[in-house]
Each structure stands twice: as C-alpha cells, then as structure tokens.
C-alpha cells in the first residue's frame, strides 16, 4: 500500500499550486448560528462560518468525514470562520486546491493519504455511453449549482448546473451511506436533471400525510442508466483516506 507524506514542501505547497490572495481564519464567536461553507458567485471567494477543521478538510478534499482520521480532539471540537479571496475568478477545482493550501499553512498541517479498500459506490459510464449531460461552456466556480428538491413523498429531483462528475460523486456520497468514487473519466462540467424515488418502503398509491405516493419514478440506482447513461454500483474498491499527523490551532489573523 502506497503511503506518502504531504509536508510543507510537498505538492500542496509547490510554487505553481494556486493560492488565495488574501484570507482570514478566526475562531467562531460563542452562540454563532449553524455553520456553512461555500464559494460565492463570481468564483473568486470562499467563505465558511462555524465549521471545525475536519469539515473544512472534508470540503477541500471532497470526501466524507469518516475518510479523515487522526489529529487532536479540537479538530472536531473547535469551530472557525473563514473568508478567503482569490486574485481572479477560478474554477471550483482550483478553489479547492487553494482551500487545501490555506488549511495546510494556517493549521500547520502534516497529512498523509492512505488508499483503503472499503465498501463504496462506483460511478461509471453505462453501456451505450452517457446521455442528457449538457456540457457547460463556463466552468467557473460561481456557476456551480447542484440543487435537490423533494417533489412529493419519496420522489426527488436533482438539478445540476455546471457540475463536474467529481462534485456530483461527492454530493452523492453525502446523501448515501458510503463514499462514491468517480470512475466516469468525464471531464468538464455539465447541466442535467435526475428524477428518482427514494426507496423508503411506501407502496405506490399509499396515502402518507394526505399525499398519494407516486412510485412511478425509477429508484436512484435505476435512474442513472435510464436518465444519464451512467451507473452507480456498490463495490469494494480503493478509497482515498487522509490521516492528520500534525495540526496546530491557527494564530488569529
């Protein structure tokens, strides 16, 4: 198993790796509202509020919280506010690299990656190829939207606007019980819709809270080949995990 250390002089901090032009990270004031972390329209700023380091790392590396191990207890217990600005509009991928660099520098992080075989879902292209994926001409981070709406009991619709397959896999993993590994090899970002029903055990035509259940939409797993020409399959596969070898509370800036 290949294990490699990401130190201060590693790839993450190489001169050609993108960085925010200005950034602040401060402890969250007591009594602050529930946290959030997102890029702002325009693709030039990333803001976070009331997030612990583990969840910042989760977003920066696009993995589930359980894929991050190690580190002192405050990695989960201390919350921070973040406000970072790039010199110019950037793609969502570059913004995540900037976030990785910022966290590494301000928290004096030493990390290493360990691929581990675990139960996951693999997202891949189905037989016949992808369909209904409209390439988006502008991959700027400010253009990214992936909204989830519940149309009625069990029935859901996801609408993607300039979503990469990596981002889609990450969002899927947040809604499922295990990581999702993108093996589609589809580059760029896409606009698409995905309509399906969550299999919650209700019968078609059953009345729930005064609403008739319509289970005519395919299940999530059946919807992928039908609507997008993709497939989502449970498999044991190597999944990237991150181990925190060292972290320090940031000096307030």
Describe the structure using short key phrases:
alpha+beta; globular; 19% helix; 2 domains; 5 helices; disordered N terminus
Descriptive overview:
The chain is α+β, with helices and mostly antiparallel strands and 253 residues long. It has two domains: 118 residues, no CATH class; 120 residues, no CATH class. Helices cover 19% and strands 40% of the residues. It contains five helices and 15 strands. The strands form four sheets. Strands 1, 5, 7, 11 and 15 form a five-stranded mixed β-sheet that branches. The protein has a four-stranded antiparallel β-sheet with strand order 2-6-4-3. β9 and β10 form a beta hairpin. α1 packs antiparallel against α3. The longest helix has 15 residues. The relative contact order is 0.20. The N terminus is likely disordered.
Q: Tell me, what's the shape? A: globular
What proportion of the residues is helical, as a percent range? 10-25%
The biggest beta sheet is recorded as: 5 strands, mixed
Q: Helical segment tally?
A: 5
Radius of gyration: 20 Å
How would you sum up this structure in a few lines?
With 253 residues, this protein is α+β, with helices and mostly antiparallel strands.
Topology:
Elements: E1 4-6, E2 22-27, E3 36-39, E4 45-52, H1 53-61, E5 68-70, H2 74-77, E6 79-85, H3 92-106, E7 110-125, E8 134-135, E9 145-152, E10 155-164, H4 165-175, E11 180-182, E12 189-197, E13 207-208, E14 211-212, H5 220-228, E15 230-246
Parallel strand pairs: 5-15, 7-11
Antiparallel strand pairs: 1-7, 2-6, 3-4, 4-6, 7-15, 8-12, 9-10, 10-12, 13-14
Helix pairs in contact: 1-3
């Amino acid at each position: 198993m290949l294990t490699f250390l990401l130190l201060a002089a590693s790839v993450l901090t190489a001169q050609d790796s993108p960085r925010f032009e200005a950034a602040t990270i401060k402890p969250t004031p007591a009594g602050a509202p529930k946290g959030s972390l997102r890029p702002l329209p325009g693709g030039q700023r990333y803001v976070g509020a009331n997030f612990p380091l583990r969840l910042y790392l989760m977003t920066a590396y696009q993995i589930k919280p359980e894929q991050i191990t190690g580190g002192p207890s405050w990695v989960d217990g201390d919350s921070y506010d973040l406000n970072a600005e790039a010199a110019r509009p950037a793609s969502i991928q570059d913004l995540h690299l900037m976030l990785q660099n910022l966290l590494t520098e301000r928290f004096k992080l030493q990390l290493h990656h360990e691929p581990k075989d675990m139960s996951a879902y693999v997202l891949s292209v189905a037989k016949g190829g992808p369909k209904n994926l409209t390439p988006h001409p502008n991959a700027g981070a400010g253009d990214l939207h992936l909204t989830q709406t519940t149309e009625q009991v069990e029935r859901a619709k996801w609408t993607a606007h300039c979503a990469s397959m990596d981002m889609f896999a990450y969002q899927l993993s947040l809604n499922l019980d295990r990581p999702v590994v993108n093996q589609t090899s589809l580059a760029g970002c896409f606009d698409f819709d995905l309509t399906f029903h969550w299999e919650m055990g209700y019968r078609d035509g059953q009345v729930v809270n005064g609403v008739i259940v319509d289970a005519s939409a395919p299940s999530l797993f059946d919807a992928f080949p039908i609507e997008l020409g993709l497939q989502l399959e449970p498999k044991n596969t190597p999944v990237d995990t991150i181990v925190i070898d060292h972290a320090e509370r940031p000096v307030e800036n």
